[in-house]
Amino acid sequence: MDGLGAFEGVEDDRAGSHPGVRHIAVVGDVYRFTMHAGDRDRAGDRQRQEVKGMRAPSGGPQLVLGHGETWWLSYRMRIPRGLAATTGFTHVFQTKAPGKGTLPMVVMSLRLRRGVALIELKVGGELVGETGLDPLYERWVDVDLEMRLAENGWVRWRIHDDARAVIDVERSGVDTWLPDQVRPKWGIYRSLRKGPLPDCHLEIRDLRAYQWTR
Q1: Distance between CA atoms of residues 182 and 172, nearest Å
Q2: Between 160 and which of 13, 25, 75, 142 could a Cys-Cys bridge form, CB atoms 3.0 to 4.6 Å apart?
Q3: Which of 157, 186, 150 is nearest to 53 (CA)?
Q4: d(Cα 69, Cα 127) in Å, to the nearest integer?
Q5: Considering the chain, what percentage of its residues have pLDDT values greater than 90?
Q6: Three-state SS sequence of the chain
Q7: Contact call for residues 176 and 149 (beta carbons, < 8 A)
Q8: Model confidence over 122-179: pLDDT tens digits?
Q9: Does pTM surpass 0.90?
Q10: How far apart are CA 95 and CA 184, in angstroms?
């Protein structure tokens, strides 16, 4: 495990709203993202503590996810109950392009819909799949995301709780490409437009990335 050096960059309190406090840290073999109620992103109506991009092991080069390529991202995730689903956006994974002002393309979110807490995946704003969040709280679950990066691409999203498949969905004919490269992001990015939210955290571990042909 290469610590935070496994990522291209770390966005820990980039607005300086909580000086002197580390929000993204390595605890043993776990990446922990902590969000305090008073933390703010540069836009004051939201909060963000994220890591971005990937590097090859042992301080290797940045991994560039290019057009027409197929990538498989695999990791384990634990969502404590304090990190609640919301009617606004609460993202725990995104793909974006480098640079300012770019919109996310593949987004995994915790969504409260009609009073039901869900974890969902959207591509270009289109819902690919969703499943109930309550059975997943406080458990280590396996997350797999396969993507062919193209304007006419495809995704496959799987979550396993031990040997049980919680969700396994695939969608083709979706736009997964963001010029001029795709950068994955992990962490907590959530809206405050519906009101303040409590302290919370997210944990991930065992991150792996594979480029492959299918």
Answers
A1: 18
A2: 142
A3: 186
A4: 22
A5: 88
A6: CCHHHHCCEEEECCCCCCCCCCCEEEECCEEEEEECCCCCCCCCCEEEEEEECCECCCCCCECCECCCCEEEEEEEEECCCCCCCECCCEEEEEEECCCCCCCCCEEEEEEEECCEEEEEEEECCEEEEEEECHHHCCCEEEEEEEEECCCCEEEEEEEEECCEEEEEEEEEEECCCCCCCEEEEEEEEEECCCCCCCCEEEEEEEEEEEECCC
A7: yes
A8: 999 999 999 999 999 999 999 999 999 999 999 999 999 988 999 999 999 999 998 8
A9: yes
A10: 4
What span, in angstroms and rounded, lies between the C-alpha atoms of 74 and 158? 10
Is the four-CA dihedral 112, 118, 124, 129 of positive or negative sign? negative
The answer on pLDDT for 100 being more than 80 is: no
Which residue type is seen at 47? Answer: Q
